[in-house]
Amino acid sequence: MQTEIDEAIRMGLVGCLLQFHIKLKLTTEVIFLAVHILDQYLSVNLVAGKEFPLVGLTALVLAGKYEEDSGIPVGDYVNVAEGVYSKKQILDMEKLILRKLGWTLAIPTTYHFLVRFIKAAEADKEMENTIIYFAKSGLMQ
């Protein structure tokens, strides 16, 4: 459905979101939910290429609000994105995404299944880190 966004552009954005995720010290659940929100929004709404990074950043904000107990302020996201988007732009996009998705954000992501697998397999820390690394790498695909 997207005319201005292809696999390479999406991969680049998800790579940026992973970097923001690390800088903001967000939980692993956040990045998996953010990519889900991004993909769900792209499946129901045509997005202009110049608007795509804003959609991705806002998906990260929404996922952070949903998954994080600390509630990182939107201003921190603005700062990590080097002020490319204003707080108002992010909040406006947040409303649009929530409206288009019918306020449905919660789903079991790959990460939830991996946590269960790691526990069932009684994996050591090295195996757990390897599994999470490959799962995060897979987000870009």
UniProtKB/TrEMBL annotation:
Signal peptide: none annotated. It comes from the Eukaryota. SMART domains: CYCLIN. Gene3D superfamilies: Cyclin-like. Keywords: Cell cycle, Cell division, Cyclin. Residues 15-99 form the Cyclin-like domain. GO terms for biological process: cell division. The keyword Cell cycle applies. InterPro entries: Cyclin, Cyclin-like_dom, Cyclin-like_sf, Cyclin_N. This is Cyclin-like domain-containing protein. It comes from Papaver somniferum. The lineage of its organism: Eukaryota, Viridiplantae, Streptophyta, Embryophyta, Tracheophyta.
